[in-house]
Design goal:
mainly alpha; MetI-like fold; two-stranded antiparallel sheet
Length: 272
């Protein structure tokens, strides 16, 4: 089953990526031609730059909120903690398409509630779908949807820490901020590394949010992200070989970034 639905498509995509298809000459084996074109393609490089900027802005903010929320939940030893966990996790259960539509409607300059409220309050209307601001709107959507998932992972790691260490620190006069900074956070670096990698991979694979928001703005085109560009080439232009090369290249970049992060994090841990 895994082979049929995972490895077989990957193998076929890899096969397409090393072949070129032309009306004159047919299909021929060209292992480097498509990849050479990918890394000199300004559309791909600009899309890659956008997702890199998106990740650099959104990932630290999201993980910071998730860490703060998990630390607060760790201090709550009541039924409220269970209620807050459910509330925080609920946005993750909402399909991404619905989330994008909801936020797109809320911020729409045509009939969105938020711009109309700002006008009633005397503020000038701000077009959040402008080329400059739309990336921050997407960051808001992703942060709203994924923060709860990462918070639960971090909270679970916090719950696994021995309680006697915290109690000893309290007896020695440490406050909760000091306990979080010097005891809790250093002990959950594994969970933080895991959530960071998940977040980076999600940022590099950005597709659904810009696809949904593209109906609200002309700032988002078919090549706004590498995944959107690959999809458009494959299903709008029937360039399956070049689209496969873009997908394989993006997967290789994600793997290199993820492996590099784990390697550096492991070296840092070994030095302690």
């Amino acid at each position: 089953m895994i082979s049929a639905f995972l490895f077989t498509p990957l193998a076929y995509a890899a096969y397409l990526s090393v072949h070129t298809h032309k009306l004159i000459g047919g299909t021929r084996f060209a292992p480097f031609a498509n990849f050479r074109d990918v890394f000199t393609d300004p559309m791909f490089l600009s899309g890659l730059g956008r997702v890199a900027l998106f990740g650099a802005i959104q990932v630290p903010i999201m993980l910071g909120i998730a860490l703060f929320g998990a630390l607060i939940l760790d201090l709550l030893n009541s039924r409220l903690a269970k209620i807050f966990r459910i509330i925080a996790f609920l946005p993750y259960a909402v399909p991404t398409v619905f989330g994008g539509l909801i936020w797109g409607f809320l911020f729409s300059t045509v009939n969105g509630p938020l711009p109309r409220l700002l006008l009633h309050l005397g503020f000038h209307s701000v077009n959040l779908f402008s080329p400059t601001l739309v990336i921050y709107l997407m960051g808001n959507i992703v942060t709203w949807g994924i923060t709860g998932f990462n918070m639960i992972i971090i909270y679970t790691a916090l719950q696994g820490l021995p309680k006697d260490t915290n109690e000893s620190a309290v007896i020695d006069g440490a406050n909760q901020i000091q306990i979080a900074r010097f005891i809790k956070i250093p002990e959950i670096t594994g969970a933080l590394a895991l959530t960071t990698i998940f977040s980076v991979i999600g940022a590099m694979q950005l597709y659904t949010e810009p696809s949904i928001l593209s109906r609200y703005t002309y700032a988002i085109n078919n090549a706004y992200t590498p995944n959107m560009y690959a999809f458009s080439l494959a299903f709008n232009n029937a360039q399956f070989d070049y689209s496969s090369a873009i997908s394989i290249s993006l997967a290789a970049i994600v793997f290199i970034v993820s492996f590099g992060f784990f390697y550096l994090n492991r070296r840092r841990l070994l030095k302690k």
